[in-house]
Amino acid sequence: MQSKITAFFTSSPASSSPNYDDDLSVWENQQHHIINTYTRRRPNPNAGTSDPKPATLVKNKKRSYAQFHLDFGQSDFLLRACSTCGVKFTPGDPQDEKSHNEFHKSYTQGIQFRGWTKENVISLPGLDSGRVVLFSELDPFSHRKKVEEVVRMMEIEIGSGWILHERCKVYLFVYLNRVAGCLVAEPIEKAFKVVSCSDAGPVHSAKKRGVTTRSTTLQFGNVIFQRETQRKVVNVSDSEKMEGAIFCDSEPTAAACGVRAIWITPSNRRKGIATQLLDAVRKSFCPGLELGRSQLAFSQPTSAGKALATSYTGTRSFLAY
């Protein structure tokens, strides 16, 4: 007779004893212990209650526009040159306009000059306002920097690269804490007497002449037009701006002082500053000797320089070199 199926699952006597555990229990309880090192965090009471702030989207934001220039094809759209000081700047640019105003004031009224600790002031009897300060090659470097700044301002009007060298003496006319005029003199040995000028005219300035009127008739068929034209006669003040050649004697004359360059700021001209500078040169250039007016020699002068030399020396036959 076939055995019952339960006979195949009869447990062994060792396993049927309640005093013994199975192999898995022995392995877990005796050989290995599982240690839990993780600590559960406390739940956040605010979690899920506050929603994150959504990103704000700005629509139709109002924009501000500023219009600085209108481009109609004008020649000075970007840069404009000042007719007085020659500086180019951009109209409407605050920084450009500020820089131009500062330079324009220095050019027309003079570079600021607060004075030196040790100044060589040339005393002049007829000088009521201002003072004449002498600079020589033995002066400190800080003095030279100020003189070079003034010379660069002079070069705008009378040319660059030739005014100053080591043997020169520089006379600064200081007025209201600004350098209103500058004269550069140098030692020379000979000069030549001027015998004639190409632009002849009176020694002293003449008054402005009148205006002449000329009528002209224009006829087109039966129509007649009467045209009146006015022509201005050039006066002495206008001719001073023109260049003119000078002719000198071939025989040299002994000379000691040459006026290399002289320049007065535009707003201080016609005030006698050039005369004061020339007087200071005559008095101090040669130590212990005061030169006469006719003993000063002038470098190849412009028309304005010739007018000054003629007026100061009292003759058209002044010395040139």
Explain this structure.
The chain has 321 residues and is of the alpha+beta class. The chain is 22% helix and 25% strand. The chain contains 6 helices and 14 strands. The strands form 3 sheets. Strands 3, 4, 5, 6, 7, 8, 11, 12, 13 and 14 form a 10-stranded mixed β-sheet that branches. A two-stranded antiparallel ribbon has the order 1-2. It has a two-stranded antiparallel ribbon with strand order 9-10. A hairpin with a 6-residue loop joins strand 1 (80-81) and strand 2. The protein is elongated. The model is unreliable at 198-213 and 231-242 (pLDDT under 50).
Helix and strand topology:
Blueprint (H helix, E strand, L loop, with lengths): L22 H9 L48 E2 L6 E2 L4 H16 L1 E2 L7 E3 L8 E5 L5 H18 L10 E7 L2 E10 L2 E8 L13 E10 L2 E10 L3 H4 L6 E9 L2 E8 L8 H12 L11 E3 L4 H11 L5 E2 L1
Parallel strand pairs: 12-13, 13-14
Antiparallel strand pairs: 1-2, 3-7, 4-5, 5-6, 6-7, 7-12, 8-11, 8-14, 9-10
What does the overall shape look like? elongated
Instruction: State the share of residues found in helices, binned by percent.
Output: 10-25%
What order do the helices and strands follow? Answer: HEEHEEEHEEEEEHEEHEHE
The protein's oligomeric status is single chain
Structure class: alpha+beta
Strands, count: 14
> Sheet bearing the most strands, described?
10 strands, mixed
Mean pLDDT value: 78
Notable characteristics:
ten-stranded mixed sheet, 25% strand, two-stranded antiparallel ribbon, 321 residues, 6 helices, alpha+beta
